[in-house]
Amino acid sequence: DVQLVESGGGSVQAGGSLRLSCTISGYTLSKDWCMAWFRQAPGKERDWVATDNGVGTTYYGDSVKGRFTISQDNDKNTMYLQMDSLQPDDAGMYYCAAHLRSGGACYASAPLFPFWGQGTQVTVS
């Protein structure tokens, strides 16, 4: 079974940094998988944050571009999200998600991801 487990959330002051991890079991990170981070604030929809397409290209939402960095360590089968210059609007539950690549494209829409972690909370004050 595919399992994604996030960790690394916490509480930081505005301007601070956190690094989230997503440990993967049940499959091996490779070019066949698209990996992404989403976040959800209370009462809001789950928003796409960033994607690593498994073949060396990363994509970011406009609100995090230049501040967040998504990466993968294939040896550890783990994905990361380095978050710098955190602001209160960045607070929420952060989820990692995965889908098998289809037709060469990675999705940015939550309903199209079949695999999810349980989330890790980020608080920014």
Describe the structure.
This protein is 0% helix and 50% strand. It has 125 residues and is an all-beta fold. The strands form two sheets. Strands 2, 4, 5, 6, 9, 10 and 11 form a seven-stranded mixed β-sheet that branches. A hairpin with a 4-residue loop joins strand 7 and strand 8. It is globular. The model has no long low-confidence stretch (mean pLDDT 94).
Structural class: mainly beta
Mean pLDDT: 94
- Biggest pleated sheet: 7 strands, mixed
Given as residue ranges, the uncertain stretches (5+ residues, pLDDT < 50) are none
Overall shape: it is: globular
Number of helical elements: 0
Report helical residue fraction.
under 10%
* Strand content range: over 45%
Radius of gyration based on Cα positions: 13 Å
How far apart are the first and last residues' alpha carbons, in Å? 37 Å
Quaternary state of the chains: single chain
What is the β-strand count? 11
Record the SSE blueprint.
Layout: E1 3-7, E2 10-12, E3 18-25, E4 33-40, E5 46-52, E6 58-60, E7 68-73, E8 78-83, E9 92-100, E10 115-116, E11 120-124
Features of the shown structure:
mainly beta; single chain; 11 strands
Concise account of the structure shown:
The protein is mainly β and 125 residues long.
